[in-house]
Structure prediction request, 399 residues.
Amino acid sequence: MYFEKDGFKDEVAIIGMGCSKFGERWDTGLEDLIIEAAFEAFEDAGVGPKDIKVGYFANTNAPNNCSGTPVADALKMHGIPITRNENWCTAGHIALINAALAVKSGMCDIALAIGAEKLKDRGAGGLGVGRGLNPVRETRRDAPGSFALIAEAYFKKYGLTYEQGKTMLAKISVKNHANGSLSPKAHCHNVVTLEQVLKAPLIASPLGLYDCCGNSDGAAAAILCRADIAKKFRDDPIYIKGFGCSTDMITPHYRCRDFDWTSFEALRNTAKMAYEMAGITNPSEDLDLAEVHDCFSITEMCIYEDFGFIPRGTAYQHINEGYFERTGKLPVNVDGGLKCFGHPVGASGIRMTYEIYKQLQYKVDNPARQLKDVHRGLSQTFGGPPQIAACMILGNEKG
Prediction:
């Protein structure tokens, strides 16, 4: 593979990022959100729309299945290539990866990756789940039901009682709500107790209301350039160390193989690709923080293990020890994650990267949640059906 052989590490930098307020943005349209995120990124990088030579738009829910035109129209960036991808929840990361590849290849010196979504206007049904899928694919389960099966399978495999497993997952939700309460741009700011989470209405047993993220409106943007010119724009660019992307089927019905609903090949392959590119051999020691895809509390827990943050089957112990808390060994979702910051699908991967970017610059919007002594971080998304996973590893030091 080209990037494993010739290297990608430290060849591309992020010089500007922006993020809109996430939430129920009834006062805005899709273009308003694009402008809000993009112009924060332009100001951050010290560039303007005319400096951008190529754009990549992440969006799963635009009206009329449009192309990149909402970005071109909103930012007056006609006459350059702007393409749209709708790779489920990983669309934001795919836009970032495409922008990085454009810069690395020499296609351009400066590229824009932007994700935006107006989910509240159309409701959850607007996501079009099942659209275009093979007619024989199983469509009877919804997302909470599918992830509930994962939780039950994990409890059974590793000998957890229902109460133990549900409490383990509830602690993830409590953590993310506490973190989100400190994030000014987050959708939700409510701190919840363990008791509240455990007594909340069930959505799909064992997952309750607080185990599930909601629908949000929002946008996020990133401006990337060649690493060797990055300091012409700012003193503290953030360097791309590696990335990964992988797809796989989510059910065992399409291939004869072992699949026990507790581990996902797309996650494992994505981590392996990114770690090899970034030179990471021990994620729990080599990473200082991570933003991971917590569409449900069980998803975040599976990622802990599939990304090698902890040994397989030890999530119960590590969560009880506070390993992933803001003050723990490896802080995860320090801005509240999808659960509290929100999940406007196409924007999420870039928003998660925005948090890593700001943390590594020591410039988060609330000093109370700024981590100390951070040098490398990972952002990651996971979507489907079928499985698709993507991630990006960033660092504030070159070389």
In short: The chain has a mean pLDDT of 92.
